[in-house]
C-alpha cells in the first residue's frame, strides 16, 4: 500500500467511525485529509504510484539544492573566500548539469505518457455510460441497456437524511457493476462542466458540441462521490456526482427496475423538444 493510499485509508476509517459506514466503502473527502481518496480503479492506483514517484524526486531535488546553497553561502562568503577564483568554464560540470536534469525529465515523462494513454480509452469496454452536463445537474443515459436516462440533482441541506454527505449526495445515483470496464461518453447541454471522480482517477470535461471519452473499472463495491470540476456558473459547487458500485447481479436487477422507473422521463423529453422546435 502506497503512502497516500494509507492516508486515504486512515481517512476512510475515521469517516466510517463518524457514521458513514452504511455502504461497503464510501469514498468522499474527510476532514483534515491530506492525501488522495482511496483508489478503486487501476488508473487511480497508477496515478497514486506516479504521484509517489514525483514526491520522491521533488524531495531529493529540494534537499540537494538547499544543501548546495547553504554550502556555497558558507564556503564562498567574503570571510571564508577573500580571493575569488577567475574560473569561467568547466566542460564536465556543464555537461553534467545539463544531462542530469534531462535524465530526470525522461524518468518523469515515460510513466506520465503511459498513464495519459491508459486514461484515454477503455481497452475492452463492456458497457457505455453517457453523461450530459447541464446547469446545474447531470443527466445519465445507459445506451447499452435500452437507452433509459435520468437526471441527478443535489440533495439540499434541509432534505438530507442521516448518512448522506452534504453537497455530495444526489437524489438519483449512477449505478455501475463492479469489475466492469465502463466507457464514459461526456457532453454538455449549455456550458463546459467536468465530470470528476477522485477515487476513480477520472476528471474529464463535458463540452457543448463535443463528445469526450474516458473510462473506469471499479474493483470495489461501494458508494463514491465526485463533483463538477469546471467553473460553470453560480451553482457550480452544487452539482455533485454519486456513483453506486454494486455486484453484477444487483446491477442486472437495477436495470430491470430502472427501465420501468425512468421510462416516463424518456417519453416526456422528446415531446418538450418538439414543442420548442415548432415554436421557433
Ligand atoms: Cu458544472
Helicity, as a percent range: 40-55%
List the domain count as a whole number. Answer: 2
Overall shape: it is: elongated
Q: Please write the CATH class name of the largest domain.
A: Mainly Beta
State the separation between the terminal residues, measured CA to CA: 59 Å
Which segments are poorly predicted (pLDDT under 50) over 5 or more consecutive residues?
Answer: 11-24, 270-280
- Quote the CATH topology of the largest domain: Immunoglobulin-like
Count of alpha/pi helices: 5
Report on the biggest sheet.
Answer: 6 strands, mixed
Bound molecules: copper (II) ion
Number of strands: 11
Question: Can you offer a commentary on this structure?
Answer:
The chain has 280 residues and is α/β, with parallel strands linked by helices. The chain has two domains: 3-120, Helix Hairpins, CATH 1.10.287.90; 127-279, Sandwich (Immunoglobulin-like). Helix content is 40%, strand content 21%. Strands 1, 5, 7, 8, 10 and 11 form a six-stranded mixed beta sheet that branches. A five-stranded mixed beta sheet has the order 4-3-2-6-9. A hairpin with a 4-residue loop joins strand 7 and strand 8 (202-206). Helix 2 runs antiparallel to helix 3 (91-120). The radius of gyration is 25 Å and the shape is elongated. Mean pLDDT is 87; it is low at 11-24 and 270-280. Bound molecules: copper (II) ion (CU). The site of copper (II) ion (CU) has 7 residues, from loops. Copper (II) ion binds next to loops.
Amino acid at each position: 500500500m502506497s503512502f497516500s493510499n494509507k492516508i486515504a485509508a486512515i481517512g476512510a476509517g475515521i469517516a466510517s467511525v463518524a457514521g458513514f459506514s452504511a455502504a461497503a466503502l464510501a469514498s468522499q473527502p474527510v476532514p483534515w485529509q491530506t492525501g488522495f481518496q482511496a483508489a478503486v480503479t487501476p488508473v487511480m492506483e497508477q496515478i497514486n504510484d506516479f504521484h509517489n514517484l514525483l514526491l520522491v524526486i521533488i524531495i531529493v531535488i529540494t534537499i540537494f539544492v538547499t544543501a548546495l546553497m547553504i554550502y556555497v553561502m558558507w564556503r564562498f562568503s567574503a570571510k571564508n573566500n577573500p580571493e575569488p577564483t577567475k574560473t569561467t568554464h568547466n566542460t564536465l560540470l556543464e555537461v553534467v548539469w545539463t544531462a542530469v536534469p534531462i535524465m530526470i525529465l525522461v524518468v518523469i515523462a515515460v510513466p506520465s505518457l503511459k498513464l495519459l494513454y491508459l486514461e484515454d480509452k477503455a481497452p475492452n469496454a463492456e458497457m457505455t455510460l453517457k453523461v450530459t452536463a447541464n446547469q446545474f445537474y447531470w443527466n445519465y443515459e445507459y445506451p447499452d441497456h435500452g437507452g433509459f436516462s435520468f437526471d441527478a440533482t443535489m440533495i439540499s441541506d434541509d432534505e438530507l437524511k442521516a448518512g448522506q454527505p452534504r453537497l455530495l449526495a444526489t437524489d438519483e445515483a449512477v449505478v455501475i457493476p463492479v469489475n466492469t470496464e465502463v466507457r464514459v461518453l461526456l457532453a454538455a447541454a449549455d456550458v463546459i462542466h467536468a465530470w470528476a471522480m477522485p477515487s476513480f482517477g477520472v476528471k474529464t470535461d463535458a463540452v457543448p458540441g463535443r463528445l469526450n471519452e474516458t473510462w473506469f473499472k471499479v474493483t470495489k463495491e461501494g458508494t463514491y462521490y465526485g463533483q463538477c470540476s469546471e467553473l460553470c456558473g453560480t451553482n457550480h459547487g452544487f452539482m455533485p456526482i454519486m456513483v453506486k458500485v454494486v455486484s453484477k447481479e444487483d446491477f442486472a436487477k437495477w436495470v430491470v427496475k430502472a427501465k420501468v422507473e425512468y421510462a416516463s422521463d424518456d417519453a416526456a423529453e422528446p415531446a418538450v423538444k418538439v414543442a420548442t422546435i415548432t415554436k421557433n
